[in-house]
# Entry
Amino acid sequence: MNVKMVLILLVLALAMIFALVCVLLTRGRAPSPCQHQPPAQEDTGDGQSLVFADLTPEEMVQVVRYLQGHLGVQLVDASRAKPSDSCIASIDVQVPTKAEVLRFLDEGGARPPREALAVLYFGNQPDPNVTEYVVGPLPTPAYHRDVTVQKYRGKLLYHRRPVTSREYVDINALIQRELRKAPRFLAACCESDGTDLAILTTAPRGFKSGDHTTWFVLFHNVAGTGYYLSPVGLEVLVEHGDLRVSQWQLRKIFYNGQYFASTGDLEDTFVANLLEVVRIKKPPAEAVLGSMRPRHPPGSMGPLQYEPQGPRYSIQDNHVTFQHWSITFGMNPNSGPRLFDIRFRGERIIYELSLQEALALYGSNCPGGMSTRYLDGSFGIGRFAYELVRGLDCPYTATYVDQHYLAESETPKTNQNSLCIFEHDAALPLQRHFSDSQSLYYGGLQKNMLVIRAISTLINYDYIWDFMFHSSRAVEVRVHATGYISSSFFHGRGTTYGNRVGPHTLGTMHLHHMHYKVDLDVHGQLNSVETQDMGYELVKDPWSMQNTIEWLYLHRERLETEDEAAFLLKAPLPRYLSFASPKPNKWGHLRSYRIQIASSAGEHLPASSSMERAISWGRYQLAITRWKEEEPTSSSIYNPDDPWTPTVIFTDLINNETIINEDLVAWVSVGFPHVPHAEDIPNTVTVGNSVGFFLRPYNYFDEDPSVDSPDSICFSGAQD
# Structure
């Protein structure tokens, strides 16, 4: 090898090392010498997206100060508030009405006033209640108005409020006091005095409206590990509905298949040698079932994503552009990620795309597991979207965005780097063809997409929320489930409700259901719903009329009413279902976007259940309704604590109104049943545990829009 070749290879090696150093070490908020500015796009944002923007910490502080000075009520910081106090429960942005926003964005109208929505718990009043106020204008509030009755057609009863962190602290203290009444039992069963046991809540809290009795499940708690896999067999039922914490009490104790009236009763039964005790030693950290500590030293580094000229997307405030896509993003502290005003080449396709709710419903032969129906919006899907780990949760090269919220405190909190945006190379052709017939050539396009991602940790489970924007102009929405399974103590006929995954651990069967709102505006607000499906007709062949042929044809139908467009979970869904504009493309077909669902959801609850109406959105894999300002959501943070008289009933949105040439909304349910097994220990893997849906152009364009991608290639046999 000559000297010139050696020098060339050395220069290339140094360039590669330099590029990798830039990728791994210098990727941050501020531009650095290693980073290149993204290529110019036709729409880099002019501040219009701020009409949807989440509140800043400064705005939250101003709203708190205003409420403290203008309500005439003593407000206690929610982090310290007792149920008998009044406090600010949460503050979020009040998104302006759609009509106001469209006048501003499309018609040059005035910018809507910026407002906040404040939720307050009034516990120190003769009639305790939950009240919602709209406060504005920001950043200097001057007015507030009570919107509770307008939104919910009545008062919000106090028992519907979500349980606060302070209440959980008081419940934990009560349980600890009661456990001290059974010292010999605890020492025998669990090698514990009770103080080192973790306590996990269940929901809902009773069997009828007004109940506030909750089962709590106890686990061995080993620092740095997932306690969810180490149940000790002990569960307690706490009544905590009284506004006076001193009146809360334990109503029932469960241990290893038996029920007891109190911890004293449990202790007496144990001392009398009338109780079968399963003696469980507290495991060391290195041997605990839920440990995620690496078992081997690091190996060689795997592949890394590399952006040779820096990111090809551009972010300004809450707005991202990518290859003619334009998206406004945000985070609802309760319901999670929300996107607005999604456009291609300046033309709006989707006004709102947002997560609404996530349900986890369990089965078990222990009382906590058998009664659990978590509705995660009340815990805070967005609030518990924590910081993302570079290189694992998202690529090193991703852009990371902070999210701010105010909940159960008068001080705003920040989840740093809790939303990431990146371009993803799927290592798969989006399209390709190798021609060896008539002429020799190859054409293709790699499958790259923009990804907006957040990950919520909701007690034991971690949900990865992805919104993906393809160069084919399809939008893909997907959720992956990982994290720890929730478990019960293994006893009796436990395998009727799951699989045994540890010495005393039953991995309890459950199902996941997620609900999304999709406000498609396909070439304008007025759309209709078109379906196409296949059929066969047996006919004589037209060239001889002597033989029969199965003639495959396309059956087209326009759905006329909301009832026709409400597809129950087990009902057949048309293979093609689209939101159609009245305007045709070049070939005479209505410009449309198709909804394509990939899900294997199980039955959310029998219709006979007294709490089914609270999650009645789970009845449908897809429902399409007329858009209405007074129907903004499919669920409510108040539903879990009173599911028997739900605050929001989704089925009330479906009332057989016409859906021809109207502003329409699609409500999409996705989910899957999960029967935990040995391979879910210590963590459930994302492989096979994901569901979602696509929004795909269907005659919206005159040809595949990805042909305009600068990433496409084509070469012929005449080329080298």
About this structure: The helical segments are 3-25, 57-70, 98-107, 148-152, 165-179, 183-190, 263-271, 367-370. Confidence is low (pLDDT under 50) at residues 19-44.
